[in-house]
Amino acid sequence: MELSKEEYRIFKEKAEDNYKKIGDIKCPYFNDDNIHFNTKGLNHLLFKSWNRARSQKEQYTRLRLIPLARKIIAKSNTLQEFDEREIFVKQKINSRWEKRLKIVRYYVFIAIFKKTRLKVVVKEIDGGDKFFYSLYPHWQIEIDGDGNEHKVFYTGDLEND
Hints:
Elements: H1 5-22, E1 24-27, E2 33-36, H2 39-46, E3 47-49, E4 52-53, H3 56-64, H4 66-75, E5 81-93, E6 96-113, E7 116-125, E8 130-137, E9 142-143, E10 149-150
Antiparallel strand pairs: 1-2, 3-4, 5-6, 6-7, 7-8, 9-10
C-alpha cells in the first residue's frame, strides 16, 4: 500500500500519539511486572540507529502492528528467545550523556495472527526497568518470479532489528 507524504504524516502522528498513551502493560511471563512503552521503543521503530531512519515502508509496517504487540505482551506466558550481552549503552549521568558498559537482556515473545508470525522484543538494561523495544513480522528473503530478492528487515540481531 503506497501512501502519499501527507497520508503517511497523518498516519505517523496518530500512531505516535496512540503509542504514547499506552504507558505500561502487565506481562504474565514477568509475574505481572510492568513493561514500559517509552520513547526508546518508539525511536527504535522509527530509526535503525542514531540519526539513521528506517524506510517509510518499514516504519509504516511496524507502527501499524503496535496494537498486536500490546496483546502479545499482555498475554505472553512463555518466552521464545532470550539473549544477554554486554554492550555500551548511552545513559545520562550527572547531567551529561555517557556510554557505559552494561549487561543488556532481550526477551522475545512470538505470536501468530492471521498467518503472520510477529516477534515482540522487550529490553532490560541492568539496573533498569523492562521496556518494549521492537516488533517485526518474521520476514525472510523472498525471491520473485524474475529471481529478484526483496529486502529483508529482520536480520536476527535483536539490538538493531
